[in-house]
Specification:
Blueprint lengths: L1 H17 L6 E4 L12 E2 L2 E2 L8 E6 L2 E8 L10 E4 L17 H4 L33 E3 L5 E3 L8 E6 L4 E6 L6 E4 L5 E5 L4 E10 L1 E2 L4 E7 L13 E8 L4 E13 L4 E7 L4 E4 L22 E14 L5 E3 L8 E3 L8 H6 L7 E3 L7 E3 L7
Parallel strand pairs: 1-4, 8-9, 21-22
Antiparallel strand pairs: 2-3, 4-5, 5-6, 7-8, 9-20, 10-20, 11-19, 12-18, 13-17, 13-20, 14-19, 15-16, 15-18, 20-21, 23-24
């Protein structure tokens, strides 16, 4: 009899619960208050597509507050607003449905701690790098599983790029037979298209005079607007304290900037006052334009890049190349220094175990060994 009574009570409670009005809820831990907004967006919560009665949980200090989506009844931001709801509404039973879908919540997490993460499926990089700082460098795996280090276009199963021993002129415009221009402080610069993948190390600009010192050197990602003459991309590099004078002015980047062939950048010198500089008599540089809405000439400048090239490669035929990206035998080494003998190699700075060529025919490869005892 007791068991039957318990069952009857459970059934009665179940019907009572089913009779309640359930409403979906969104958990927004990133928002601490709801104070204003528009009919389609309120404090970062896109309201378009959310049903009337949707409940939003907002964490304020140590309490969780409930806000209810209303379709009408508020003059401030009708027809879709979020307002504090009455906790004592009769016939309501709040149910929390936590979701991580950004399309449902309007919230995208800023990051994920992968310190002790155990993968349960393959990791898709979707054309992106594995990099310490999130930049376009580090390790790259293409769609065929080829691994590139320092390159996003590995030519074989393993392709390791290394920096050249020194930088070289990458882009330049030297025609200064045009007029002398006095331009505003924020319009002294030029966009350019990178020709060599590597590190941008130096930028040089030829001016006639400068009334403002010191200048701030800036680099923007992207070109120049043909309407406003301003950079169209984000500011990605600044270096203050550049002293300008008549003639060639060189800026050595304190932190070289990784650049890829074909990318467009804009450099700018800013002082707060006008510059006087020479320019070409016409638009002669095809890779960019000066910082003016009128692209009728180009500044006198050059850029230096420390290029990247294949240092080591394992190709599809299992050939290993050092100093070449197309080895024709199981091992091919390009770039060994040439010395007449062991003594000359040591005098040239090679140490024990290093390789060198004799340069003769046959061109013998030798290993440096300690000189014989006297």
């Amino acid at each position: 009899m007791k068991n039957l009574l318990v069952v009857s009570l459970l059934i009665a409670c179940s019907f009572a619960l089913l009779a309640q009005s359930y409403e979906p809820m969104l958990n927004r831990p990133d928002i601490t208050s709801l104070t204003g907004g528009t009919a389609t967006d309120l404090d970062g919560i896109p309201t378009a597509g959310l049903a009337e009665g949707t409940i939003v949980i907002v964490n304020v200090a140590s309490e969780a507050r409930l806000y209810r989506l209303e379709i009408s009844g508020d003059a401030e931001s009708s027809p879709t607003i979020i307002r504090a709801d009455d906790y004592g509404v009769t016939g309501k039973l709040w149910r929390t449905a936590i979701t991580a879908d950004p399309e449902e919540t309007g919230y995208t997490p800023t990051g994920d701690d992968l310190g002790d993460h155990i993968a349960t499926q393959n990791i898709e990089t979707d054309g992106h790098w594995l990099s310490n700082d999130g930049g376009d460098e580090g390790v790259f795996v293409d769609s065929d599983g080829n691994v590139g280090i320092g390159t996003n276009a590995p030519a074989g199963p393993l392709d390791v790029y290394s920096l050249a021993s020194s930088d070289a002129v990458d882009q330049s415009q030297y025609d200064n037979t045009g007029s002398t221009w006095n331009t505003a402080a924020d319009h002294v610069g030029q966009s350019f298209t990178v020709g060599t993948t590597g590190l941008l190390t130096r930028v040089r600009l030829q001016i006639v005079s400068s009334a403002g010192n010191p200048a701030e050197f800036r680099i923007y990602q992207g070109g120049v607007s043909g309407t406003t003459g301003n950079p169209v991309g984000p500011l990605i590099y600044t270096q203050p304290g550049i002293v300008m004078a008549a003639g060639w002015n060189e800026v050595i980047l304190s932190t070289p900037l990784a650049v890829n062939s074909g990318e467009v950048y804009t450099f700018q010198f800013y002082t707060g006052s006008q510059f006087s500089h020479k320019a070409s008599p016409a638009d002669v540089y095809a890779g960019g334009q000066w910082l003016m809405a009128w692209d009728g000439c180009d500044m006198v400048f050059d850029t230096y890049v420390q290029g990247l090239s294949t240092g080591l490669i394992l190709d599809a035929s299992s050939n290993v190349g050092i100093g070449t990206d197309s080895p024709t035998s199981k091992l091919q080494v390009v770039g060994l220094p040439v010395y007449a003998n062991n003594a000359a190699a040591i005098a040239g700075g090679l140490t024990e175990g290093a390789f060198y060529r004799t340069g003769g025919d046959p061109d013998v490869v030798c290993v440096v060994h300690p000189p014989a005892a006297p």
